[in-house]
Design brief:
This protein is mainly alpha-helical. The chain has helices at about 5-15, 35-70, 85-100, 105, 165-175, 180-185, 205-215, 220, 230-240, 245-255, 260-265, 270-290, 295-300, 305-315; strands at about 125, 130-140, 145-150. The chain is elongated, with a radius of gyration of 24 Å.
Length: about 325
């Protein structure tokens, strides 16, 4: 095999070891002669496709929740005997997309602290300004994950607009809609289906999510086999790209350590692209600064005056932060 082919196979293998996303990078489309330019286009296309799918998924979920809320608002008060499965799926989409909570932890979210398991300290607390403080357990790593949402206020007498649907709104509405059901079933679980008569052994909502996608999305989107885990991985990579490789920001969204985020969620190929881009920008700025006092600096750099001015404006400090030892 050629060196290029071997490298492409290694890249594919490294991408398979990370969690899948809604989009894929086509390594075969790389132009060896124009590697930097071709790679930039490749990542831009990948990012744009990723954002388009994420926006489509979340917008659909917001519409389902908005329609459901506004229909319930026609009655005197909200029912509290459980939530329709498709609405649960829509709410979980919004929460995972915004907060990055692991789906397994989200499925088992507790509304308040259980007396029997007080040491775990799981809870959802609504602040006066409409923000939420959430403690969920990451069972695989055996530690509490603390999250805070943006604010939202539930008002049954007002028409809900799609743009106002966020994670805080979804959790607060879910608490209202399951209040009576929790007392009936004697459980602290947040996610309870309408018509549910017993507390299930498994709290997974994977099937509800699949049904949601099959019913509301066109066939070409359903073929991607979307899952909440894919949604979480896709948003993490989108954050990583749009922040120019800020792994701290990405890890904060995921609720993971930096090392775990890099090894499990960010493909090595993408890490290398971001790293090389930072080095390229730094080298470009270094040459620009080194020739700043030269009378013919544009000629030395092979640029016109307008190109030189654009270069100075384009290279900002936010794009120059090189990875730290924790990120490499």
């Amino acid at each position: 095999l050629s060196i290029r082919r071997q490298r492409q196979m290694c890249i594919r293998d490294s991408m398979r070891s990370t969690n899948p996303t809604f989009s894929a990078i086509d390594i075969d489309s790389l132009n060896v002669e124009k590697s930097m330019t071709s790679t930039q286009v490749l990542v831009d296309d990948f990012y744009n496709d990723l954002i388009e799918k994420l926006d489509y998924l979340t917008a659909t979920a917001q519409k389902v929740i908005t329609d459901y809320h506004n229909e319930l608002s026609k009655s005197i008060c909200f029912p509290s005997d459980g939530i329709e499965p498709r609405v649960i799926a829509a709410m979980q989409i919004i929460i995972v997309n915004e907060m990055g909570i692991n789906p397994s932890s989200l499925y088992n979210l507790q509304v308040d602290i259980s007396i029997v398991r007080r040491s775990k300290k799981e809870f959802i607390k609504i602040e006066a300004d409409g923000t939420l403080r959430v403690n969920v357990i990451k069972w695989r790593q055996r530690y509490l994950q603390k999250r805070t949402t943006t604010s939202a206020i539930i008002n049954a007498n007002q028409t809900l607009h799609q743009r106002d649907v966020n994670a805080s709104f979804c959790i607060q509405l879910a608490m209202i809609l399951t209040e009576q059901k929790r007392r009936t079933l004697k459980t602290n679980l947040l996610w309870l289906r309408r018509g549910q008569r017993v507390v299930r052994t498994s709290n997974s909502f994977d099937q509800e999510f699949r049904d949601f996608c099959d019913d509301l999305f066109p066939q070409n989107f359903a073929k991607l086999k979307p899952t909440l885990m894919k949604l979480r991985s896709s948003r993490a990579i989108a954050i990583y790209i749009e922040s120019s490789g800020d792994i701290i920001k990405t890890a904060t969204y995921l609720g993971n350590k930096v090392k775990t985020s890099l090894s499990t969620y960010i493909p090595l190929f993408l890490q290398e692209i971001i790293y090389r881009r930072k080095i390229y920008v730094f080298q470009h700025l270094y040459l620009t600064l080194a020739t700043a006092n030269q009378p013919e600096k544009q000629k030395m750099l092979g640029m016109t005056v307008s190109e030189y001015n654009r270069c100075i404006k384009a290279v900002s400090y936010t794009h120059l932060t090189l990875p730290t030892n924790r990120e490499v």
